[in-house]
Amino acid sequence: MVSVMAGPATTTQQRILEGMTSAVLLFDENMRLQYINPAGETLFSVSARHLLQQPYQALIEDQEDLQELLQEAVNSSHPFTRHEVSLKLGQDIEVVVDFTAVPLSEPAARQAILVEMHQIDRLLRISREKNQINQQHATRKILRGLAHEVKNPLGGLRGAAQLLERQLESEELKEYTRVIIDEADRLQKLVDRILGPNKLPDKRLLNIHTVLEHVRNLLVAEVSDRIKIHRDYDPSIPEIEADADQLIQAILNIANNARQAIEDKGNITLRTRVERKFTIGKQRHDLVARIEVIDDGAGIPKEMQDNIFFPMVTGRADGTGLGLSIAQSLILQHDGLIEFESVPGRTMFAVLLPISKEGR
C-alpha cells in the first residue's frame, strides 16, 4: 500500500484513511491508481483489487478535463479544488462530488497525486427538496390570499347579475346577464383548481401496484396503439398508507403530461422501486416507495424546469399548467415529494412516498 506521504503507511495513517467518509485515491506520475480507501471502494461499487493499477481515464470520465489539471498539478506542485463536479465512474455510476487534488513530492520519492472526492449528490438533492417544499408552501399561502381577494368581488358580480336579470323583461338582454353569471362561475372553479386539494387524505393501507394498474387502464383507454405503456414493478414493495383516490389523481396527472409530451408515438414506463434510509425534506425514512413515470418525449425546456410545479406554468398552448401543481400538493399531503429529471428523449417523474411501519 502507498500512503498519503508516498512512502510506507503507518498504522495511524492507515486508520485515518480507512475511517474517512470521503473517497481517497492515490495516483502515481503515470496517473495509475496506487491506493484507494474503503469509502472509495463504496463510491465505485468495486473492490480495490479490481481498481488498483488502472489508469485514471479507465476509472473516471469527467466533462471538465480534470486529467489535464491533475497533470498540471503534478508538474507545478500546486493543489486545486473543483466543486460540484459531475463524474461518471466505471460503466454506469454517475455522481456529483467536490474534487480536491494535492500533489505529493518528497526527495528520492516518485511523484504522486492524492485525490479526495466528497460525494454531494445527496446533500444537493436534500437542499433542492427543501427549497421545493418551501416554495410550494409559500406559493399556496400567496394563492390562498389572492383567492380570497378574487372570490369576494366575483360573488358580488354574480349576485348583481342575478338581481339585474330579474329586472329585465327582454330575453335578449337576459342572455348577457347569463354570460356574466356563467363566466363568474367559471372563474370560481378556476380559482378552486389553482388552490388545489382542500380535503385531507383518507389514508388506508394499499398496494401501490393496484393504484398504478388503475392509472394504466385509464391511459390505455385513451392512447393510440402507437403509444406503448410498459410496467417495471418491484413486487416486494410493502403496502403504503395513502388515500387511493388522491394517489390515482396525482399519478394520472403526471402520466397525462407524459402522454402529451410524446404526442402520438412513444413509450411510457411505470416503474416502482424501494429506497432505503432515504431523506424527504427534513425527515429520514427507513423505507420509501419510489414510483416513476418515464417517457421518451422531447423533454421539459430548461427555462421551465425551475418552475414546473407552479400553477399556470405550461409549455402547451392549450394547457392550464395545473396538473403537476395539483399532483405535488397531493403528494405533499402524504409527507412525500415529486422529483423529476428531464433531457431530450427521457423525462422521469418520481413520486416518493414513505412506507410506514404499519405497511411492512
Gross CATH architecture of the largest domain:
2-Layer Sandwich
Strand order of the largest sheet: 2-1-6-5-4-3
- The 3D shape can be described as elongated
CATH C-level category of the largest domain: Alpha Beta
Kindly provide the radius of gyration, computed on alpha-carbon positions and rounded to a whole number of angstroms: 28 Å
Proportion in β-strands: 25-35%
Unreliable spans are 1-8
Q: Write out the CATH superfamily name of the largest domain.
A: Histidine kinase-like ATPase, C-terminal domain
Percentage of residues in helical conformation: 40-55%
Major sheet: 6 strands, antiparallel
**Secondary-structure element sequence?**
HEEHHHEHEEEHHEHEEHEEHHEE
Average pLDDT number: 84
Determine the number of helices (DSSP H or I, runs of at least 4 residues).
11
Q: Helix- and strand-based class?
A: alpha+beta
Total strands = 13
> What is the distance, rounded to the nearest whole angstrom, between the alpha carbons of the first and last residues?
45 Å
How many individual domains?
A: 3
CATH topology of the largest domain: Heat Shock Protein 90
Topology:
Blueprint: H1 11-19, E1 23-28, E2 33-36, H2 38-44, H3 48-51, H4 56-59, E3 60-62, H5 66-76, E4 80-89, E5 93-104, E6 112-119, H6 121-167, H7 171-195, E7 204-206, H8 208-222, E8 227-232, E9 240-242, H9 244-261, E10 266-280, E11 283-295, H10 302-305, H11 323-332, E12 337-343, E13 346-354
Helix pairs in contact: 6-7, 8-9, 9-11
